[in-house]
Amino acid sequence: MNIAIVCYPTFGGSGVLATELGKVLAEKGHNIHFITYQQPVRLSGFHANIFYHEVSVPTYPLFDFPPYETALASSMVDVVNNHHIDVLHVHYAIPHAAAAFMAKQILLKEGKNIPVITTLHGTDITLVGRDKTYSPVVTFSMEESDILTAVSYNLKEETYKNFSINKPIEVIHNFVDIKRFNKKPVDAFRKLISPNNEKIIVHASNFRKLKRVMDVVQTFLLIRKQIPAKLLLIGDGPDRNEIESFTRSCPECREITFLGKQEQIEDILPIADLFLLPSEYESFGLAALEAMAAEVPVISTNAGGLPEINIDGFSGFMSNVGDIQDMSKKAIHILSDEKTLREFKANAIIQASKFGIDKIVPQYEALYQSLIK
Length: 373
Ligand code: GMT
Description:
By secondary structure, this protein is of the alpha/beta class. It has 2 domains: 2-175 and 356-372, 3-Layer(aba) Sandwich (Rossmann fold), CATH 3.40.50; 178-353, 3-Layer(aba) Sandwich (Rossmann fold). The chain has helices at residues 13-27, 68-82, 93-109, 123-126, 135-144, 153-162, 178-181, 187-193, 213-224, 240-248, 265-268, 286-293, 324-335, 338-353, 357-372; strands at residues 2-6, 31-36, 50-54, 87-91, 116-120, 147-150, 169-171, 199-204, 229-234, 256-260, 274-277, 298-301, 316-319. A 7-stranded parallel β-sheet has the order 3-2-1-4-5-6-7, with helices on both faces. A 6-stranded parallel β-sheet has the order 10-9-8-11-12-13, sandwiched between helices. The model has no long low-confidence stretch (mean pLDDT 95). The structure holds ligand GMT.
């Protein structure tokens, strides 16, 4: 099949998932055309049947806000027409679903009915999309998509709660490439980070308020009172400055390192003993799934779709949002005994395997096929 994928090219989970999906589909022999404004971060290297179409938005003195959505819709029309696209799969509703609707209408006038799948990822529904600034357009473009999918049952529920739509929503969980993440830890790297065999705790996110990165730091400081440990913070975003300033003024924070944005997170995760994800909300929590695939147990909150991935007492533990005492107690339980840690690590990969490529990607292929027929 010839599949066009529209996504954000950044480190955000929706872009990561969309890019990984395109890569897997290409490996399976499909031709994949990414349409976005920058080369997706996870799209490195050469792939014979992956094509990248950059949306450029020309500026003009009149435009205080260059019209990306219009440029995107035009790119979609161009790619569909010139590359015999069978299906258009857009990830994250805003503004991709609305641009897809526009492209679909233009193509209909030209006698081509291009099927559109919209995959909802989280904040497009729970945070940004439900705001009245966007809500009417999001509601309409969801209704107009041929198929609507959500990355968790929780997100499906949230969508029905926040929007008056009647359309069925298919749940297709996110997936992880187990082979890529399940690497052997590099001893020399581990030694560099924890020279005295301290436990290594990792958090990765876009450092937005909703990720509660300060809870990661506070939980770590409580853990450190009982267990020698190091904390690696991966990613960047609006809250980083404040958190970095705090750690500079706190003597016990010497064991915390900010790694910034990392493209090869699969090289870092395998040296970790624990992953912390104290988010206020996650529709899914792809970062946690990638950690589990690297055999790293997860302490997360029980918010949103996280209970669909992290199994309490098996692949890690869950706590209420903001309960740093509970998170640290559970982390100490996992980290203080080698046998327990080994068990949780083994369970983490068992749990991650339920979301392997082989289980999830065929569900998308089946949807494409149903539309093409
Ligand atoms: O978490 C973010 O802020 C990024 C956001 C995105 O759309 O890029 O992530 C959302 O989609 C991911 C992939 O489906 C999910 O794993 C994240 O849980 C979800 N984030 C939220 O719901 C806050």
